[in-house]
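Dissemination and training. As part of the outreach component of the grant, students in the summer workshop were shown how a complex can be specified as a set of sequence lines and then modelled as a single object. The example used during the hands-on session is reproduced here so that future cohorts can follow it. Participants entered these lines:
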Amino acid sequence: MANPNGVGASVRRREDPRFLTGRGNYTDDFKRPNMTHMVHVRSPYAHALVKGIDASAALAAPGVVAVLTGADMEADKVGSLPCGWQIHSKDGSPMKEPGHFPLARGRVRYVGDAVAVVIAETKDQARDAAELVMVDYEELPAVAASTRAATPEAPQVHDEAPGNVCYDWHLGDKAAVDSAFAQAAHVAKIDLVNNRLVPNAMEPRAALGEYDPSSGEHTLTTTSQNPHVIRLLMGAFVLGIPEHKLRVVAPDVGGGFGSKIFHYGEEAVVTWAAKKIGRPVKWTADRSESFLTDAHGRDHVSHAELAMDKDGHFLGLRVATLANLGAYLSTFAPSIPTYLYATLLAGQYKTPAIYAEVKAVFTNTAPVDAYRGAGRPEACYLIERLVDIAAGVAGLDRVEIRRRNFVPASAMPYQTPVALQYDSGDFAKNLDIALPLVDYDGFAARKAASKAKGKLRGIGFSTYIEACGIAPSNVAGALGARAGLYESAEVRFHPTGSVTVFTGSHSHGQGHETTFAQLVSQRFGVPIENVEIVHGDTAKIPFGMGTYGSRSLAVGGSAIVKAMDKVERKAKKIAAHMLEAAETDIEVKEGRFTVAGTDKSLGIGDIALQAYVPHNFPLDELEPGLDEQAFYDPKNFTYPNGCHVCEVEIDPDTGVTQVVAFSAVDDFGNVINPLIVEGQVHGGIVQGIGQALLENCVYDDESGQLLTGSYMDYCMPRADDVPSFTVRYHEDQPCTHNPLGVKGCGEAGTIGASAAVMNAVVDALGDFGVTHLDMPATPEKIWRVIQDATPAMAAE
Amino acid sequence: MPCTVTMTVNGKTVSREVEERTLLVTFLREHVGLTGTHVGCDTSQCGACVVHVDGRSVKSCATLALQVDGATVTTIEGLAAADGALHPMQAAFREHHGLQCGFCTPGMVMSAVDLVNSNPSLSEQDIREGLEGNICRCTGYHNIVKAVQAGAEAMNADQAAKIAAE
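and obtained this result:
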């Protein structure tokens, strides 16, 4: 009988009871004795010199404990927020890395850039006093758009980055691509924008700093996806605190989507201030503050061309992308439009030659960094839009052109021309499952029915692949990463047979407290309620890199498997001793250790007890205890892939697009908990639909003011903006290089969805001569396209 | 200026001296110590702050504490039974994986309960429109809708059983 709480079961989540009854512990929920509240003074200008700060009125205000500035931090030798990935330009020179200070030192470079903090007894007192801080700004010209920032006349954001260029990078074989284009029978071209987005996790960022003068230990409680990374970066590079004196705790975190990976200035300020004033300091962002200062996502402007032979086979792809990094380098920013983007430009296709150029520029906007998918949505969107256009150019059906160019399953493992080697995948199979699932054959009739009602119907595909489960440390290091990307796990059996797993992964919605426990329950037959997963506290867990890049099961889960392997090896030796048999005669199955061919057996619980009460134990060969640690460094990225299909109906009178159906067929390798996997896909799809139809982070280019600064102007997807979904996955292509055979699923929905939606929208507008439309395809945009085309049609 | 605000929260009378500008959500979180109700935005759109005031859902970030002086307030902490048994809507959210990070969940559940109380026979479209004031970034709403449908069914069954017993 299968373990109802084992691998493959839709186990209901163990973290839910506290969330459902209001007993979650999010950072803003914490109170400490003598705690103070911190509010920032932030620049209202996109670019300005800070000539002086007069805090006298603020200091005199009720309840104010301190007003601190960048000058105070500089005097205490506080460093710059470090960047964790170094990119080199085409000419071999390293990227420009200007200083990035937790509180500005003399100059501010985006609206919201932190200038000072007010610390007071209550939050209201801090807010009131912050309005009394007088800052003397000298406004400077600003630039928000990457296209203008890249022109010679643009204002310079950083003196050390001439032309606002951070780096000018490339990947691939230019000569091979040029040669492919020279022989091409058809060439498809596209100019597109991947619009800037605000991640908008529902919990605003927060940080609580504490200092214990007796032990000299600092504690930072923060809304982070990776507490150890924060501890390392902040301790070593910013505040000069030895790691063994710095504890970072990421408690319950209300969503991250990448925006909570980075080491933000506020974390350093509360940690530093807590010691300085001798009291705990708490900061919680307002939503408008989050809009201004959370790292934004995407913001690419690209031109791409695809060369084909006369039968529509892809011969070569060339891409030029301008990436906006914002005013400062966020922790992983340089890697997103390079190694997490260009390396995915082969997509699911066997295009033999690819060349990509990426120029990254600074602008007077919030820093840009990873947001769900981080580079891979940008790559997928570009490829899948271009392939649709290529179908038109080559005179082929959009499904057929994909089939014709898929890497076949028989070609795996497949070395792409852009560094990555796909381990497994059957792309044609995903499509074969999708087509009948969405009743593709019936689409023409549905389109006609819509037309009869005066509506425009379209269907769009996105056959995506992505690289996640980051990453092999030596590969990442060779590409510029300044960190390892392994994961850690400790599996500790207790004397009475219950288990605690300490994991370097962090759960901020992914359900690891359930899925990781399923791994242990499956392997050792321990009832799942006796397995506890501990994460998020650097004082409790071995060094881990945290959760992002869909890596938790692939890397974190594999570390748990390795630790369980060590436990099992030791348990086998103990069992052999207890059962007076040779180790080679012990058979192990789901936590039972049996002498082969007999009914002499022990459960793991018996063995655990013996390990801690070693009275019948091989003490001359083995140490007591049953507690093993492992670190797992992945051998390759993992490559989830799939086929997303979107069907839309557009009302030409209003331009409103309704997503009438969205189906996802995915290959995630082995699936541990189907319920949780489907939930990840649903959430990712809606973020992709959001980018395609609703969301847009807009700055006024001249003033650098953020125009979409709240939920009133930034259109978040709501329940009535999207339908229910059809989600299928198959497990026929397990990952070939990790012990669980898992590929990860956290970002795939977001990676595939936008292209499927936009391909459907363009399909629906086909009668109006539309071959491309930039995201978001708002009602106004669509309505105008139809209006502009209609006189021409009327004339026909 | 401080004033004294008194209300019943989850069955207990609470009385606090607060500044007049104190929001109900701040009153609950900071002054009463019930941190289950969350603040997710500053334009009263996200719904993470929804509580029940005199039986109807209200955005506590857009309400002053003194506005509900004398009222009966129920927060997420007060939804389960005294013996800890989950409210059928809470149980439905768990069964159907209607939450991931949990931050929008208290407001979502409180809104859902009020939605069902107002209309026991909700269609999928009614649910989606009814939850327009509750933003979730994690779930994509698919399982929330399923949870609310199941929660409604269970609440209706409980209600029917109660009526039958009377």
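Chain A has a mean pLDDT of 96. Students were then asked to discuss how this feature might be tested experimentally.
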